[in-house]
């Protein structure tokens, strides 16, 4: 089989990539070996230090070593002393807090006993007050509803009274028209004296009816004002009816 030039180039690239990978592996292996060498050197140095300490320990006693360490590290004694002082201060603070709390508890207990407040009764009284408030609100709502009903009744009565007055006025107007027609007829046919006397009697009857209606209006308005003072009662002034009747009477007299 013939090998092409492209295959040779591909094989060369593969070989180059493999060489690069192997170089990277070699570098990593070298780094690991250096780290291992450093660890070995540190272990050797540690072992040498241990040997030196063992030699010193054999030559000197433990007390001498402790004194040497204390001389070399004076801060340790200062730190220990500070720790002792802090422990003492903390214990004193805790004792003071316990004493204060016991005094406070005794004081509160004495105050509660001296006050003699029965919290159960206070709670029950509060509930009773709340219930009484609810009852008062209900009563007030009932009263308001009653007043509204009375006001509605008064308004209905006012409307009925107004309608009755309108009917009465319309009747008076029709009577007045009839009297005028009768008066005109009497003037035409010459029976003036009789009709004038009849006219006076009818005029007096009209005035009496009008006075009765005004007195009834006054009594009705007084009773309505006593029942509902807040509602403005509509009243029809009878001055117009009086003026109409008086004008009709004047026209009769003039005729």
Short description:
By secondary structure, the protein is mainly α. It contains six helices and no strands. The chain folds into two domains: 1-115; 118-188.
Number of helices: 6
Q: Major sheet, described briefly?
A: none
Portion of residues within helices: over 70%
Query: How many structural domains can be distinguished in the coordinates?
Result: 2
Rg over CA atoms: 63 Å
Structural class: mainly alpha
Beta-strand content bin: under 5%
The run of helices and strands is: HHHHHH
What's the N-to-C terminus distance? 160 Å
Shape: elongated
Question: What would the average pLDDT be, to the nearest integer?
Answer: 74
Number of strands: 0
Q: pLDDT under 50 segments (min length 5)?
A: 192-197, 218-255
């Amino acid at each position: 089989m013939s090998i092409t030039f492209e295959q040779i180039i591909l094989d060369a690239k593969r070989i180059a990539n493999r060489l690069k990978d192997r170089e990277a592996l070699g570098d990593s292996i070298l780094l690991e070996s250096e780290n291992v060498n450093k660890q070995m050197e540190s272990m050797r140095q540690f072992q040498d230090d241990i040997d030196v300490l063992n030699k010193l320990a054999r030559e000197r006693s433990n007390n001498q070593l402790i004194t040497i360490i204390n001389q070399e590290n004076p801060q340790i004694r200062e730190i220990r002393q500070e720790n002792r002082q802090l422990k003492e201060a903390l214990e004193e603070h805790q004792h003071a807090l316990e004493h204060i709390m016991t005094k406070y508890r005794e004081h509160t207990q004495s105050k509660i006993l001296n006050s003699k407040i029965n919290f159960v009764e206070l709670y029950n009284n509060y509930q009773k007050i709340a219930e009484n408030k609810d009852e008062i609100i209900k009563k007030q709502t009932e009263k308001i509803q009653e007043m509204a009903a009375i006001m509605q009744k008064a308004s209905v009565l006012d409307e009925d009274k107004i309608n009755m007055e309108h009917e009465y006025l319309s009747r008076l107007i029709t009577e007045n028209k009839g009297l005028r027609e009768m008066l005109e007829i009497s003037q035409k046919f010459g029976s003036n004296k009789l009709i004038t006397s009849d006219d006076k009697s009818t005029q007096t009857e009209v005035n009496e009816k009008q006075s009765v209606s005004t007195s009834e209006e006054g009594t009705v308005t007084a009773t309505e004002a006593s029942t509902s003072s807040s509602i403005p009662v509509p009243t029809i002034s009878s001055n117009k009816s009086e003026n109409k009747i008086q004008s009709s009477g004047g026209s009769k007299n003039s005729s």
